[in-house]
Amino acid sequence: MDTFQDTVLKLKHYWAERGAIIQEPYDVEVGAGTMCPETFLRVLGPKPYRVAYVQPSRRPADGRYGENPNRLYKHQQLQVILKPTPNDVLEQYLGSLKAIGIDLAKHDLKFEEDNWESPTLGAWGIGWQVMLDGMEITQFTYFQQCGGIDLDLVPAEITYGLERLSSFLQGVDSVFDMEWCPGVKYSAVRLADEVQFSVYNFEMANVDRLWRLLAEHEAECKELLAGYEKYAEKKRYPVLAAYEQVLKCSHLFNLLDARGAISVTERVGVIKRVRDLAVGTAKIWAAQQSDQPEAAA
Amino acid sequence: MSLDFLLEIGTEEIPHWMIPGALAQLSRLDLLGATPQVDATPRRLVVRAQGLPERTPDSEQIVKGPPITAGDKAAEGFAKKQGADASALRKTGNYYELVKKVSGRAAGDILAESLPAAILGIQWPKAMYWTDRNGPRFIRPIRWLVALLGDQVIPIAIGGVRSSNVTRGHRILGAASIPVTIATYEPELRKNFVILAAHERRHKIEKEAAALGAKLDGDLVETLTYITEFPTAIKGNFNPTYLELPSEVLITVMRHHQKYFSVEGMQGLLAPQFVAVMNTSGDPEGLVKHGNERVLKARFNDARFFWDVDQQKKLADRVEDLAKVTFQAKLGSYKEKTDRVVALVKELRGDGSAQRAALLAKCDLTSEMVKEFTDLQGVVGGLYAKAQGEPEAVSRAIYEHYKPLSMEDSIPSTPAGQIVALADKLDTLRSCFSIGMMPTGSKDPFALRRAAQGVVKILVEADLGFNLDSLATGELHAFLLERVQYYFREVRGFKYDEVNAVLKAGVSTLKDVEDRLNHVARVRPTPNFEPLAASFKRINNILKQANFAQGVVDKGLLEVGPEKDLYEAYATLPVSGPLEDVAELRPLVDRYFDTVMVNAPDPKIRENRLSMLSDMLRKFSSIADFSEIVTSGDQK
Prior knowledge:
The structure holds two protein chains of two kinds.
Chain A: H1 4-17, E1 21-23, H2 37-40, E2 49-58, E3 74-83, H3 89-99, E4 109-113, E5 116-118, E6 123-132, E7 135-146, E8 149-150, E9 156-161, H4 162-170, E10 179-181, E11 184-185, H5 186-204, H6 207-227, H7 239-258, H8 264-291
Parallel strand pairs in A: 1-2
Antiparallel strand pairs in A: 2-3, 3-9, 4-6, 5-6, 6-7, 7-8, 7-9, 10-11
Helix pairs in contact in A: 6-7, 6-8, 7-8
Chain B: E1 2-11, H1 19-26, E2 37-41, E3 44-53, E4 59-67, H2 72-81, E5 90-92, E6 95-102, H3 107-120, E7 128-129, E8 137-138, E9 142-149, E10 152-153, E11 157-158, E12 161-164, E13 166-167, E14 178-179, H4 185-191, H5 198-211, H6 218-225, E15 232-237, H7 247-257, E16 261-264, E17 270-278, H8 287-311, E18 326-328, E19 332-333, H9 334-347, H10 352-360, H11 368-372, H12 379-387, H13 392-399, H14 415-434, H15 448-462, H16 468-471, H17 474-491, H18 496-504, H19 510-523, H20 529-545, H21 562-571, H22 579-583, H23 586-595, H24 603-620, H25 632-635
């Protein structure tokens, strides 16, 4: 039986063999692998790109103090971006399931419509949730738009929920009982985060300070976005740093939301604030890409 | 010789609910006169036809030329332009004309030209690109195309995919590359675990699921028919301790989230079992069963967790929390809506139970259960109210206050529920209309048509005794009237002219409208009715032409005979009495019009006759405006 890390390694290996760059997780808090620059920014523009990476994804509101067997404040996604989409993309995806030991002939596989949309990122796509024996194991999306920009090449995004997939393979009812590596349970590695961050996110995070931080990161981002136009050496301009500020804002928004600090009326307004930053960054990134001579790429 | 035709559009999995609409469009495909037969699985849209001509026939086209008076030069010029010799022109009337021979074309060539546009012309609710921004758009990527006319491949290409005679089987169980002819196509698919015909898959699902004890559900059967290529039903179990949760919650989890059928045991109670439909041929090792059971257990655990968490704060303590839930940006929160609905329930003379239910009705929107299972709103509130010791009249009213959800759905079963449901919908309508958010065309984001339909259905079927005028004014009144018409026509099956006639005579309560409609519909088939309606229409026209409003009948001026007879007959009938009696007037009315001249030379007589006709018309128009009845005379 494969441990959690066996499964992760096999998936990475599988996609590496198919020409993907194996990236490491992005080191700023994100709610999903889609938000990493390796996806959000790389899908823009005409350059082909293939990448796969594990991304720990934080969703403060989903925390359950480690008491719910299937819900986590932080879970890990294996994110694959194939741009442009190869014609046999679904066959390749099915191959990855075989690679981690799923004998598809003995299981029930369905592709059920599930279109993805992120209002905070100005992004949407068309796709499915892939159901194996009634369980969603993957989100598959053909990106259509990102940061409010129509995409030149349509990328396929494959997002595996690693905890779910691996606990299915190991046949355990609780994520925490899954073996991370031989002799070490998932709970030994992660339970403390789940407990402590649930306490922090739901009970202790200082709401006033979070609001101030949100405003600070927003201001930093805006300042960076405003400076691009007058800056002479475009390719040196820190658009990537501006994007990190967007991610900070998005995470603070999620924290405030988990704290119950955002009324529904405010919600729309805050989402719009973050979205404006994301869309602004995407625009400048696209401009910077087309500005850059090919040789420097 | 005639040819058979096969088109298979091979795609990635199409959303099940869009497939019937696409097939309807494909069934109108132009196949040179042959009738398209369509079928589909999630991965293929198929059109077959028989008897296509090999070629279209040769034909003649007549091109009109210059007038003969324009002379030979003009004729030569025209002929040259048409690529013909002037000697080929003929004279018809005052013009030259040219008869051009148009040769027929091979059907394969015509189809090769027309098919790509026809395929990409299918309208989808949401289409996508899959190559690049300039590439084709379709519902999901097209991965292969089979296009055959007889034994020939019709050469077409879409997004880099070229047509061939090679199809694909079931994703997992079938071969990835299967050469076919039109004759072997369907059997080859079957060998490769694809049941092409939707009706056959549907039948297989129904038969197998029923044999396993499933409580069949038409919508779910339809969904499963179009998300499988080879459906097979299996049965699974869950721990009976979950039966402590309300069956509504369990069924919602099974049906809507997992697409399982529930199973009923003794006395119609829920059994701790479910039936799932796989997209494969079997589950010999029980892995699929085990996997589904595992997922369901996790889902039920979630539901139990939500239930327990939600009980920590009673509905009654959640009213203030509604201030944080937006009803609509311009219309404020659900707290404000709740205040309005409570006030309206009082205004509509709802009792204490109704008022309490109105206060608590929206509180479940703040519960974890409804956040997870949104389609259970109302139901969850009702269940929680009951569990928290609210009286039955209150909990039932909350439970049912979204009813009726459709025209087929029943209205709430209790008076309190009816009043709350009515007030809730009416408030939504009034509020949205007050900020100009009326539905337009297909756009109706707040489902106002459904709300209005619900109002109408409750008003008629619960017989609440409210005058429509007292509930709505202006545009909303007109909007509700439209729904009233729709309801009586489409749901109750009254004829449209009967509905128009009754509504035109005035609307007080909808129960009264219903009574009058029954009245009209009952008399309608009697022999005297339609001729009488025609006479009433004639009277209407006479009054209109004379520009006559109303007057007082001077009995002394009535002529003995047909005029006086008619007067005495109708004057003795009661207002709003049985229409059968009114219909009996017909011979007298006929005789009147045969012998009496309304437009009498003496203005006093004329005035008196018009007064009598308008008096008679008004007397019987409180039930229906008979001039709206379409009689056989109108249809000519």
